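May I ask for a protein sequence together with how it folds?
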Amino acid sequence: MAQHDLTWEEIPSQWAEGAFVGNGQLGMMMYAKLDENRFNFHIGRQDVTDHRKAPNKKTSMGVDGTNLLDFSRLDIGKMVIRPEGKILNASLRQDLWNAEVRGTIYTDLGQIDFRAFTAYDDMLQIIELTSSEQKEGKECPINYEWLPGDPSCPRAHLMYERYKDDYLFNPHLPEQKVIDGVNVCVQKLEAGGDYATAWKAEKKGAKTTLYLTTANEVPASNVSEKVAVKEVQKGVELGVKKLEKATRKWWHSFYQKSFLSMPDNRMESFYWIQLYKLATCSRVDGPALDLNGVYFKNTSWPGLWWNLNVQLTYWPFNTSNHQDIAYNYIELIDEQFEWIMRNRTGKSLGDYGWALHNYWLYFDYQGDDEALYEKWLPKAKRIIKKYEDKLIQNDEGKYELTPMGSPEYKGFKSFQNTNYNLAVLRWLLNESIALSQHFNANTELITHWKGILNDLIDYPTDENGLMIGSDQPVDMSHRHYSHLLALYPLFQLDPDSEKDRDLVVKSVLHWHNIENGKALAGYSFTGASSLYSALGMGNEAEAIMQTFLDAEIGGAHFLPNTFYMEGSNPVIETPLSGASSIMEYSLQSWGGKVRIFPAIPEKWEEASFSKLLAQGGFEVSASLQEKEIKWVEVKSLAGKVCILKIPGWENAYQISKGKQFKIEKMKEGEFCISLQKGEKVTLGITSKIKPILKSIPHPEGKANYFGVKKHTKRKPLLEAPILEYKALK
């Protein structure tokens, strides 16, 4: 893992360049503000939001009549180090394996060394500081201060003229106090309740250790400070070594749940950094992941978006075998579904139908048909019924969709027969039929649903491929690939069909090239990579991902710390979706088949992966050597029949010992194996293969690509300023 650590040869001078740690609820972004000669540890906590329309709840998300201002993410603040000397530079290393950042801040009076991590089992952030600064022959003190963040919605600040008459700003009155020797800063909210940050410094010899936490007991008042103080006191009592040991144990186990290696070190580093980012921003007992994650920044988009963002955010949890920290998405849908049905079944219905696809994927990757039947199908039925209300029959007896949205095209206008909604509806119908048939249920509905499918209008197309809708061609550059969802991720168009392949290839090329792609954004490239991978076009998939990693993405910003911003707004889903795209070169599992190395670029002679998760509940491992798939291992988590698609194999030989399984060759490169729950089999291209898993070696000098390097062009300041309060020491 060390080869993938982010390293900084130059000081990160803004949020967009910072080093980062987190535990899925709390996090810190580390960067300097050189004009004030300070180094920031910018604190985030995901559930610190407003609750305007729900004063008796923690958040007003899902309350009728709310908008983003009512449940916006709020800034907590920064723990700031102010050296005595002038900051000259810094060097940092973000240690992925141990989930910590180590750094040295160089000043004209010496240096300050620090280490920072977020404890996983405890809601604590740790900053260790050691200074060698000297002035007039005397050691300089370590100066640290708390800068409270602005407690109001950043969108209201940044779009003040739009919201000044509608939004009541929270009071600018952070209250500082000391409780039982612990410093506390309490921020009260207009809607009631408060959040509190507490910290205590412990000095031993030359080292000062800051124990820091933020508690949020909204809607209760005067409780957060007590919780925060207790957490800090617990941390001091445990000590850094115990906190470190427990945190490292969790992270080491996390990384070993799956494995992926490839010849391209930059791409491999990017992949592992995104997995690290996943776990810093999501945990089983935390809230659903929004655009910021745990890394708050002043932004016009301080919340969760449904028309692409949340869907892409949660894709990589599945194949990477980290669903254990993604259940908060299932809870999000369960909690918000009734609000969706009351408030979001108009032209934006497709957004929530698509969100239901992520819900379906979660359980399908587990092979859990019972959960799909009990939890997903009732929701799918209700979304289908809302779609039926929007169907009209034309003169030919075909069902057409009344005007609906296709995300963001021409300012959220509505169009007839949008491909976006036709794809979502077809997917809902097909999966509802298949699941009902599996359980021998909903007989009358199956007949009804099949009738709709049979008479549903075809996807509107023109000479450039798939259209936005029957009354709207793709006639301008546009970042969203909503009109292409029928192929990916819904697979209602068949990549194995020559006709469908030709249609999608033509559509993708037109989408990316019209007006020279001037309106494309980062996810336009990760999305295109996934579309090409689904078609087995590995060269094209890899090439367009390289364009993204080169940051050649127009006005959007792919940043040196692998974060992504549009304007000054962070949007976490794009790099996370890139991790999914990269996994798809090695493993895909749509259409009831587990596909091994389906989209490897020709120049890759080697690749390997272990314990990646496939739909149907299969943990899969495989090795590609000298451009040949040598062996494949499959473990069944649910006891379903496994159909393996292995390019280049004429026969499959069981090379694992123990129980001998029947391997049925269905056709060239395609094999069927029946495994009971918990059973595992290893197959080889010959009977004499030894299944050895190894990481792919990389050329010298290619390690530690990400971070800020010397002599590289850096982005101008990507920050929208908001008031900072006077420091609290």
Q: What stands out?
A: The longest strand covers residues 194-204. The mean pLDDT is 96. The domain at 2-255 is CATH 2.70.98.50 (Beta-galactosidase; Chain A, domain 5).
